[in-house]
Write a structure and sequence with these properties.
Layout (H helix, E strand, L loop, with lengths): L1 E6 L3 H15 L4 E7 L3 E2 L5 H6 L4 H4 L1 E2 H8 L2 E4 L2 E5 L4 E4 L2 E2 L5 E3 L2 E4 L2 E4 L4 E2 L7 H4 L6 H23 L7 E6 L3 H19 L10 E6 L11 H14 L2 E3 L4 E5 L2 E4 L4 E3 L2 E4 L3 E2 L17 E2 L11 E3 L4 E2 L12 H19 L13 E6 L3 E6 L8 E4 L1 H19 L1 H17 L7
Parallel strand pairs: 1-2, 1-11, 2-5, 11-22, 13-14, 13-19, 14-15, 21-23
Antiparallel strand pairs: 3-4, 6-7, 7-10, 8-9, 12-20, 16-17, 17-18, 24-25, 25-26
Helix pairs in contact: 1-4, 1-9, 10-11
């Protein structure tokens, strides 16, 4: 029986495993196995909300093993660190507990067809001190670490103001004004406002100073200029200091040093600029680009006909010469397309070619506003939307991801639970 192994349980990998499990795994036509280094899944665009406490990851997470049992695929926890193409095996690194004791030894997993959907991590471009002093938001663990640190800093700043004649401020600086940096900036002000309502009287939004740093000419460079300008206006209304055309050359415990030798002070430092694929992909013997992405053809196939890649870890050059952008909607489309590819391959038919359709992008500025564009290249131009309508569309993107995983009825129940939790639970995770 054919064995299809999918490495990476992000948006694309999990949707692919779920669909293949339903269509092949449950019917005994193939063995579908998903491998991920974490036991649970959380939609990556929500990590900035986990970081600020606006979202409780313990409620919204999905358990891979339980989900696989329901939808016809197997799950194995592990981190891939090698590939044996001759024997069609992937190598999983030993798994250690918090004390460094081995839980699982190094393992080898056989495959007939391998799909790599490992995603991406933040690219610090080798900036001095970034890895030591900055927090990254690539995973749930990192987002939760930021959340704990943020709460402690709010408490520290509030106590310092209570014991001083002068109000103290908490300086937070974020490098990278893409969607993550912009959304996190706005969400931080919402966190300060909610905490003030819960008793931190000296830690209001006025006591928070957020600096958003971007090397390019404008924030949200992947979106049309008018949307970028609208988002910048909204951020500045909240109190965010937006510094564009500012390149960071070094980071220390006190803040950031810029190319012109000026210093941006920050007690909390976040790096959200640039993406790259995990470094080990460059050592698998497959062709990669300069940011470790696997080069694939229009059928999402690497140079090895038995290995496919999708999402942020894959580099597919479109007809216009540009790569498919590293977005959740691209991973979603590629997962759906790969189902067709694998079916055609099993039937000996020509493999269909993937065409990315940009359906627009939306950026949530917490509860204050949402801006973005719809339709993208589906029309002659994009349609700018903002406010309540944009917020509804933004929320619907997550619901579409849930529908792909659970179906309509289960997603309806999840939506209902979410509404109930907004009534009975605190507005913010406070621990």
């Amino acid at each position: 029986m054919q064995r299809i192994v999918i490495v990476g349980g992000g948006a694309g990998g999990l949707e692919l495993a779920t669909q293949l499990g339903r269509s092949l795994g449950k019917k005994g036509k193939a063995i579908i196995e998903l491998i991920d280094s974490s036991p649970t899944h959380l939609w990556k665009p929500l990590l900035h909300e986990v970081a600020t406490g606006a979202l409780d990851s313990g409620i919204d997470e999905l358990n891979y093993r339980a989900h696989g049992k329901r939808h016809g695929f197997q799950f194995q926890i592990g981190r891939m660190h090698g590939l044996d193409r001759d024997n069609r095996q992937i190598v999983l690194a030993p798994m250690l507990d918090d004390q460094g004791q081995e839980v699982l030894a190094e393992r080898r997993v056989n495959y007939d067809t391998l799909v790599l959907a490992i995603g991406s991590v933040t690219n610090d471009f080798g900036t001095q001190g970034a890895g030591e002093h900055c927090i990254f938001l690539d995973s749930r663990d990192q987002a939760e670490r930021f959340h704990r640190t943020l709460l402690n800093e709010f408490l520290r700043t509030n106590a310092a103001s209570e014991n001083s004649d002068e109000a103290r401020t908490l300086d937070i600086a974020i490098v990278g004004a893409g969607a993550t940096g912009v959304e996190l900036s706005a969400e931080l002000y919402n966190t300060a406002e909610v905490l003030a309502s819960y008793g931190l009287k000296h830690m209001t939004p006025e006591h928070l100073k957020v600096t958003l740093i971007e090397a390019g000419e404008r924030i949200l460079p992947a979106l049309p200029p008018r949307i970028s300008a609208a988002a910048k206006r909204e951020l500045e209304k909240l109190g965010v200091t937006v510094q564009t055309g500012t390149m960071i050359t070094a980071v220390d415990e006190n803040g950031f040093t810029t190319k012109d030798d000026s210093h941006i002070p920050a007690r909390l430092k976040v790096w959200a600029a640039g993406v790259r694929a995990p470094r080990f992909l460059a050592n698998l013997g497959l062709e990669t680009n300069r940011v470790n992405q696997l080069k694939v053809n229009a059928s999402l196939q690497t140079e090895d006909e038995n290995i496919f890649a999708l999402g942020d870890c894959a580099c597919l050059i479109q007809a216009d010469g540009t790569p498919v952008p590293p977005r959740a909607q691209a991973a979603h489309q590629q997962a759906s397309h790969l189902i067709k590819v694998l079916k055609a391959r099993s039937e000996g038919q020509p493999l269909p070619e993937f065409v990315y359709r940009d359906k627009g992008s939306l950026v949530s500025l917490s509860r204050y506003s949402t801006v973005g564009s719809l339709m993208g290249n589906l029309t002659r131009g994009s349609m700018m939307i903002e406010g309540r309508i944009a917020r509804l569309v933004y929320v619907s993107l997550y619901r579409l991801h849930q529908i792909a995983l659970h179906g309509y009825f289960h997603t309806l129940l999840l939506s209902l639970v979410g509404r109930i939790n907004r009534v009975i639970r605190p507005r913010l995770k406070l621990h």
